[in-house]
Amino acid sequence: MTQALARSEDRDGLPGKADGVSSQDGMRGAEKATSKPLNAFTIDVEEHFQVSAFEAAVPRSDWEGLGSRVEDNVSRLLDLLARHETTATFFTLGWVAERHPEMIRRIVGEGHELASHGYSHVRVNTQSAEAFREDVRKTKAILEDMSGVRVLGYRAASFSIGHSTPWALPILREEGHLYSSSTVPIAHDLYGDPDGQRFAYKPFPDDDFLEVPVTTLRLFGRNLPCGGGGFFRLLPYAYFRWGYGKIGRESGEPCIFYLHPWEIDPEQPRIAGAALKSRIRHYTNLGRTFNRLESLLRDFSWTSMARAFL
Length: 310
Ligand SMILES: [Zn+2]
Description:
CATH superfamily: Glycoside hydrolase/deacetylase
Helix content: 25-40%
CATH topology: TIM Barrel
Structural class: alpha/beta
Number of domains: 1
Radius of gyration: 18 Å
CATH class: Alpha Beta
Bound molecules: zinc ion
Shape: globular
Strand content: 5-15%
CATH architecture: Alpha-Beta Barrel
Number of helices: 12
Number of strands: 10
Distance between the termini: 28 Å
């Protein structure tokens, strides 16, 4: 470990580059011949009022009348990524893309990967197979028409693909996606399958389609969250720094980090009528996220899903 870190520091002069992640930087790093994979940095592009935890408090029919904050927050994230010379994957709602064409142009124009987060954040396990196919097809077409690039990846709202949706991954493949990142193998009240796979796997024996679960840390015989989201705000940053180093060293697999644009926005209006637990999860430590992202981008090397996995 010590030697690996020392070698890493010699190579790129950045402190704390953990073994298990390769040298900086985004696209240039991905092109190097290396046995150490880059990690994948992902952003689920949605408004602060579109999260599953607020579904009951904010009906979809109200969305249009609520003030949009997503473009300003994505803009700050794009500036941050540019400063760290890092590319990322933006899993974007079709509903949001339609209303922010300039944001889509900037994401693609700055070399990031545009991917699908479905049209309007309906969890997959609440849809029929037919409705899901329609949603997947419609969103892919919107994103591709707007961006002029092929959309390869899909992430389900609230990681809602699992045992109850055996038709979901076949439909994603049939509709032309090459990978999904829609599962997380932890026990959680809203999502997750603690018995699920921890690392990227091919669900179909005759096809290269990949399911890439969000990163977890295996400790004391359990899978613990280590993929970002609310946990990145609720737990100390040192946990993630230690965890990503450990996972990279032990598995040799890329880690996957995810966040939402609203997580760097402490000024966002509070949603009235949401459950207390949802409010605590959503609003805790919003003011700390941005500085933690600076540390994360400094301490490890990141790129898009497509570059890390395809
Ligand atoms: Zn989402």
